[in-house]
Design a protein that fits this description.
The structure holds two protein chains of two kinds. Chain A contains 18 helices and twelve strands. By secondary structure, chain A is of the alpha/beta class. Chain B is an all-alpha fold. Classes of the chains: A alpha/beta, B mainly alpha.
């Protein structure tokens, strides 16, 4: 964590910057002294048009924006949408343009902070009382001075919600192979996989086509956190000095995954299956299990109502504690955004307004974050969201939250030596578990050296 | 008084300036859109730069990396493998198809054949890529046909097969470029003096001998154009690969064009991406210039 004095200094610098960049039509806080007692920034009463970049295929952001305008009619939206992969390519240019976005979906943030393209949100932490929220919600968006490591330093983004990942299962088929309750250990889970194969079912449905990115990274990371500790994995993702992914327990995890591949637990054409196909096939009854996140809940509820269940990936031994990848739906504010205060107010509103929290759970399927004393919104009975929300509480309580190994560097997911090609190689018998981790670690160090 | 000679000289000088004036717009456009970007790429290739922040001069480091990194060399090799499909197949098949059309398909049939063959050239490459992705998928048309004729054992997910993904991408390229080559060669054939064929036939030449001794030599220039266009298409391939495989499985179908895009915009290694781009330009020139020279000498003769 950064030193408090440092924080205070950044506070003032950032505030000064925010006054400079937001010009004359600024919310009240800018004119005030930099003390925590200053009035909360908001969107004022004058007409404001927020320029926002959302991610295509995730309707949650637009739904929240609509509700925000309903409550604050002076705020209108100029929304542009793009695919995640296009956003990765375009974000730096959008942030440096003459017309910078007030709010933008961030695929990665380290290099953007390095280049000073994102607004330091530290002043808002105290202004809105975000320091009263669970710190685990803020950690993913903290970046140290100079951009490295992540997980500490000032705050540079906010989450619209906080996803939970794990294993979704086809209730009928799981019951058919004797699963009466979620497996308590990895061994039990592997027993179920074998039973499914024995019964002529497709044990796991997953995507691993290059177009969608390697979905086998999900079971691999679950195996890593089941067979080893979570902290080193997070340190690697956050680019802590000296971190490595090539550890003995991770090699063991990759070996498990290789055995699953060789045993035919994944579809034969998994390297050609794209994300949407995988979900459609799973909801259509092909696959007893699939590794995915709660952002898919609404679709599962619609495609196969009541037929799909969820459990957290089991630990290696009973009582070992659960772990899950969980990452915020990250949105940042351009360093030169004209309506930074209003955008920050929106981020606060999303986490605290009852309607916004309800929309988040109904459409996003994920936990809305915010202060821990706020009640969780109610969910329609029979929705899978009940199970994922309960699971998210378990993981948080057991300190098992991880970011995604795909997010370690901008290039680590798709580049040569990255997760996607190397996992495809593992599927095709072109790579060994040891070689997989060595290749990814080499590629990671190469990225950091840039 | 001005002498007529001085007048003439001034007029000549004026003409020279007028000439430059006419060339000027094209020259400016060429400089702005070709020379300057090329020079900037060469400049970037000597830097370590993420595209936004500070850059450091690293000399030829990026080139050394491009020419020694086994992964990058493998990616460059993939482009040369594609030449077999993007260039070899369309040119050879194009020659055969063009002579067939010329020989047997005249009138309506010939027009229909030409139109159908040229159609892939009109379809955007992205659309062609998507269509072929469906055809080559696990339950796609290709596998359905194979199963229907009792060759079910051969079915596979073509674009995700480590051994066959690159050839499968090659087939898509060959399909697109075959029409272009056929039309070019057909046009060339229409210029060949028919008397040559008649006298050959009188001398008792077989169709194969006619093809080898008359058609192919007469078409050297057109063949040269075909080879040039298709070699450039294979070395600079991007669209088809991006749509059909995105370089997978593993890196078996990753080509330089794709890697340049990925390095520059996803990896934000603008220097290395630029170095790879410069190397690609040089490779295209080194491969294509000899072909140009060969065909030009032949036409001169």
């Amino acid at each position: 964590m950064s030193h408090p004095a440092n924080r205070a200094r950044t506070w003032r610098v950032a505030l000064a910057t925010s006054i400079l960049v937001s010009g004359l039509a600024v919310a009240p806080v800018a004119a005030q002294d930099a003390s925590p007692a200053a009035p909360r920034p908001d969107c004022g009463t004058e007409p404001v048009e927020l320029l926002a970049y959302f991610e295509t295929g995730f309707p949650i952001a637009q739904a929240l924006a609509d509700e925000f305008t309903r409550q604050f009619p002076n705020v209108t939206w100029n929304v542009r949408e793009d695919q995640f992969s296009n956003l990765i390519a375009q974000t730096p240019r959008l942030l440096t343009s003459d017309n910078p976005p007030d709010l933008i979906r961030l695929p990665t943030m380290v290099t953007l902070v390095q280049d000073g393209l994102l607004l330091d949100l530290e002043p808002y932490v105290t202004a809105f009382g975000w320091d009263q929220w669970p710190e685990s919600l803020l950690i993913p968006h903290r970046v140290a001075e100079g951009g490295r490591p992540r997980g500490e330093g000032d705050l540079y983004a906010g989450g619209l919600n906080y996803s939970t990942t794990g294993v979704f299962y086809n209730k009928e088929q799981a019951a058919g192979i004797g699963m009466t309750e979620p497996p308590a250990t990895l061994e039990e889970f592997e027993g179920l996989l074998a039973a499914a194969k024995e019964a002529g079912l497709q044990p796991i449905m997953q995507w691993n086509a290059a177009a969608s990115g390697g979905g086998l990274a999900f079971p691999l990371q679950n195996l890593m956190a089941s067979l080893g500790p979570v902290t080193p994995i997070n340190e690697w993702i956050y680019q802590k000095e000296g971190a490595t992914i090539d550890t003995p327990s991770n090699v063991a995890a990759a070996q498990h995954l290789q055995r699953w591949i060789q045993a035919g637990y994944f579809p034969e054409d998994v390297n050609a299956i794209e994300y949407t196909d995988s979900n459609a096939r799973f909801a259509g009854g092909e696959g007893v299990f699939t590794f995915n996140g709660d952002w898919q809940n609404a679709q599962y509820d619609a495609d196969a109502p009541g037929a799909i269940g969820f459990f957290l990936f089991p630990p290696a031994e009973v009582g070992g504690g659960h772990a899950a990848m969980s990452s915020p739906l990250t949105y940042g504010i351009a360093a030169t955004a004209p309506h930074a205060d209003c955008a920050a107010f929106f981020l606060d509103w999303v986490a605290t307004d009852p309607n916004a929290r309800q929309i988040n759970v109904d459409i996003g399927g994920s936990s809305p974050g915010g202060p821990s004393d706020l009640p969780l919104p109610t969910v329609a009975e029979g929705s899978i969201t009940n199970e994922t929300l309960a699971a998210s509480q378990v993981v948080a309580a057991e300190n098992g939250l991880m970011d995604f190994i795909a997010n370690a560097t901008g290039d680590i997911f798709t580049g040569p030596g990255g997760w996607t090609p190397e996992l495809q190689n593992l599927v095709g018998g072109q790579q060994t578990p040891e070689g997989l981790l060595q290749a990814v670690q080499a590629s990671y160090l190469d990225d950091l050296a840039q | 008084m001005t002498t007529p000679r001085a007048l003439r000289r001034r007029a000549a000088r004026g003409q020279r300036w007028a000439g430059w004036l006419f060339v000027l717009p094209a020259l400016v456009a060429y400089s702005v859109f070709v020379i300057v970007p090329l020079a900037m790429t060469v400049h970037y290739s000597t830097l370590r730069w993420n595209g936004i922040g500070e850059s450091t001069f690293v000399g030829i480091d990026n080139y050394v990396r491009t020419l020694t990194d086994p992964t990058l060399l493998g990616i460059i090799a993939n482009a040369f493998k594609l030449i077999v499909f993007f260039c070899g197949v369309p040119v050879i098949l194009g020659l055969l198809v063009a002579s067939l059309i010329r020989r047997i398909a005249t009138g309506m049939l010939g027009t229909a054949a030409r139109t159908i063959l040229f159609l892939p050239q009109v379809i955007p490459l992205v659309a062609a890529g998507i269509m072929w992705t469906w055809l080559l998928s696990k339950n796609g048309f290709v596998n359905q046909v194979l199963s229907a004729i009792g060759l079910g054992g051969l079915t596979r997910t073509w674009l995700a097969d480590f051994g066959l993904a690159l050839p499968a991408v090659g087939v898509i390229g060959a399909w697109v470029l075959l029409g272009l080559c056929t039309i070019l060669l057909l046009t060339g054939m229409s210029k060949i003096d028919q008397a040559l064929y008649e006298s050959a036939r009188i001398d008792g030449a077989s169709p194969w001998q006619e093809f080898r001794s008359i058609t192919v030599p007469a078409l050297r220039y057109e063949i040269g154009v075909c080879i040039t266009v298709t070699v450039v298409a294979s070395l600079a391939a991007f669209d088809i690969v991006y749509i059909s495989t995105l370089g997978g499985p593993g890196t078996t179908t990753t080509v330089p064009g794709l890697e340049i895009f990925r390095l520059a915009f996803l990896g934000r290694q603008v220097g290395l991406a630029s170095a790879l781009a410069v190397v690609l330009v040089l490779l295209v020139l080194v491969t294509v210039l000899p072909i140009q020279r060969l065909t030009r000498e032949d036409t001169a003769r």
